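I am writing to request your help with a piece of structural work I have in hand. Here, with my thanks, is the record as I have it:
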Amino acid sequence: MTNQVAHPMVKFQRKLSSLVSSKAIKPSDPLWKLALLYGDDWAFWKKELLDFGFTMQDPVSEVLLVEAWDEE
């Protein structure tokens, strides 16, 4: 039996969804605003987002639309 580990971006995406649901952030907020929430962890998440082709001006909603986080 093998357990499949979720990609870190899946967890990040779930957290963003939760933040939107709780109205802590808006789907239209730019990704750079997340730096205010993630503090010391932001450097890691920013690099991940950039590696997947996002810019810091993209809205949070763009991350929420991703269906699969496949790395090539």
In short: The two ends are 25 Å apart (CA to CA).
